[in-house]
């Protein structure tokens, strides 16, 4: 009897296909999973490939990701080479023509916004630079608003039957989002001009939105782990041009930030970075509520 | 559109100022005039735009929709056109990567005499790199989509002795429905786990002994591969390959039809957020006609042995990876192991130059390895590997009949090879790697070969996405 149960359970696991929804959505990062949920509602079955605790640059093309991409109708990813270390492999191994680059089933959020920090010169001596600009676009809510429009259009194109639902959910989301954005901007007004040290240059869009300044980065060059030599130099720089705090995203190694915080005598501010990065960042609204709340410590 | 005009006018201005000749007063006057024109022009256009905006707002306000979103905030400009991101990889500029490698080797035995005793020499590049400074293989990797239906790739390697080898040259479908993928050309076979991984991405300088003994280092197919991925949340993949069978353990038989058949199945998934795994089983069947190797008989005379018959290889493989919360940046661990079983069955000839003696050969041999690699802090990894081969059954008809003795086949001497390997790696960035490796290699009868390799692997160009 026990062995029968085991076999049944094994079979259930083996043949567990994703729920039958109108759109099977594979979100590369949690923020796009959350946005897809806002727009698709019950018409989308959403799988989120990575978590807020994982470095989005260092994901592997795990078998589970390939298996999930096999049945996806729509891939919602950042693009701009953020996923270059794993997504091309997932796409080529998944045996799914719908999600290949250039098809409607492959949606790149970064294409909908104006990219910051597009390098005029690209050379690996500059570290792991992204030739199309800084890909961490999700921390500017104005970008989310633009991406939402394009995503709703894409969903409507792929699933014409439910287009009305996607568009009406988009409208509802945009109304709530504009109100929330006005609130965040009002709350965060005292932060204007505040200088902070970042870990990786992954908060550029957030700082740009709130008019804050980046007073240095723990990584000597993008993608190169912090070294003692660089951190010592940074402490010296901060003595001349002080910053209010050192920022750390949920996925960053805490130690370099702790080291700097101790020596430069500035606090560490942990930011969720994406949905799921902190307990309160349960959805996109929570992400920005919590981000702004955590930053406001600096305004006191 | 206004953006374009702005850029155009800006470039006109830049050009105006960039003229190398020293500006005359009349030139300056003309530029001032032009700027005034531009300014006027822009003011007019701005006014027109403002009017259009206020008209639009008036129209929107006139509509009875109370639920309309609030008017755009100052901070929320109307959606800008999508940024003109170009593709890194496009049909005209394939993605090109170059791998540079080199070693400094110190070995207690001469690498030129490397053998794996007890096993038919595979003829592949299985020996350690030459002593002292040596250039490794430089690899050129070119991939791109061919059209909406295919992608293609070439992996060429330049060997230190100035040879060019085609490691892979394949096309792969991107548009077959229902989870199918077809690959054709020359490619690394899907059997085993490490076989499909390029040498520069291995965790050690050299291949496991089982790969060296049973597949000549790795198995390359000239043929076609069909894979099917099941539509399940669990990763379940089946593959079949048909090839010409020219690679060891087969050889080129100038035969019509299929020379080698390979089948494989892979299963994989996650365990919680921190663990990921893949397991597989593979079968390879191929054959040889007069596949030869040179040896010395019991009198020390050179002989050529040749095998004609059927070869089969079974592989069971598994890999398990751990990273806290799936974030491999700081710490991660990878455990990998494979078990091989190989059987040859056919005719075996012994030829000293006179009339050849022929009788049957039947072998049943096995081997395995297990290795663990641990990244204990960013940039640093350490690894350990254990290799073991079992000579198993080597049934030589010419020895059984009493015509010859086992001493006439020194390559097939009674020996179970083993090897222990340890390595430490420093990775300054994702694109560069320096590795120090030590092996105590008991592949051959008669002592341990102590091998020390200092190796660099640098990759130029775009990130090649690495296999799991």
Mean pLDDT of chain A: 89
Strand segment count of chain A: 8
* Total count of helical runs of at least 4 residues of chain B: 4
Distance between the termini of chain B: 46 Å
Explained architecture:
The complex is a heterodimer of chains A (about 300) and B (about 475). Chain A contains 10 helices and 8 strands. Chain A has helices at about 1-15, 30-40, 65-70, 85-95, 140-160, 165-185, 205-210, 230-240, 255-265, 285-295; strands at about 25, 45-50, 75, 105-110, 195-200, 215, 245-250, 270. In chain A, the strands form 2 sheets. In chain A, strands 2-1-3-4 form a 4-stranded parallel sheet, covered by helices on one side. Chain A has a 4-stranded parallel sheet with strand order 6-5-7-8, with helices on both faces. Chain A is α/β, with parallel strands linked by helices and about 300 residues long. By secondary structure, chain B is mainly beta. Chain B has a 16-stranded antiparallel barrel with strand order 1-3-4-5-6-7-8-9-10-11-12-13-14-15-16-17. In chain B, a hairpin with a 5-residue loop joins strand 10 and strand 11. Chain B starts with a helix and ends in an 8-residue tail after the last strand. The model of chain B is unreliable at about 1-25 and about 60-85 (pLDDT under 50). The interface between A and B is large, with 72 and 66 residues.
